[in-house]
Design goal:
Blueprint lengths: L1 H25 L2 H22 L4 E14 L2 E8 L6 E5 L2 E8 L2 E8 L2 E14 L6 H7 L1 H25 L1
Antiparallel strand pairs: 1-6, 2-5, 3-4, 4-5
Length: 165
Amino acid sequence: MARKLQYSTSMRLNYLICIFALVLSSCSFEGKMEKKLRKAERKIEKLTIKYPQLLQKDTLYDTVSIVTKEVKIDTSFIDIPGDTTYVYRDKLRIKYVKVGDTVHIQGECKGDTVIQVVKVPFDKVVVREQGIVKQLTNNVKGIAVSLLLIVLVILGIRFTFKLLR
C-alpha cells in the first residue's frame, strides 16, 4: 500500500513537471516584444492626438534616375535623285545616303538619363532627449525623499530591536 502511494505521488510530480514545462514553453520572447511594441504605438497615437505639437512636418527628398536605352533604326527605300545628307540634332543622328536608285537611311538616338527629385512629406515625432544629469536634477526631490524614507526605516528597525532586547 505504501508503494502505491509513493508511486502515485511520483506520477503526480511528473504530471506537474510536464504541465509546468508546457506553461513555460508557451511564453515566447517575440510575443512579449510584439505586445510591448503595440502598446508603445497606442501610447504614441494617444499622445499625438492629445498634443499635436509633438508632430513635426518634415520632407524627405529622393532623387530618381531613369535611364533610357539607345534606339537604332535602319531602313532602305527607292527614291529618285538625291545626295548624302546628315542630320544632327541633340542626341539624334540621321544619315541619308542615295546610291543609284536605292536610298539608305540610318538613324540613331543616344541613351538619356532623366533625373527627377521627388518630395515625400511625412510626420515626425519630436522627442526631447535628456541626459542623465538633467534627469537627476529634475528628480532630486523624489530621490531625496526616497533616501530619507530609507534612513528612517533603518533607524526605526534599529530602535525596535533595541527596545526588544
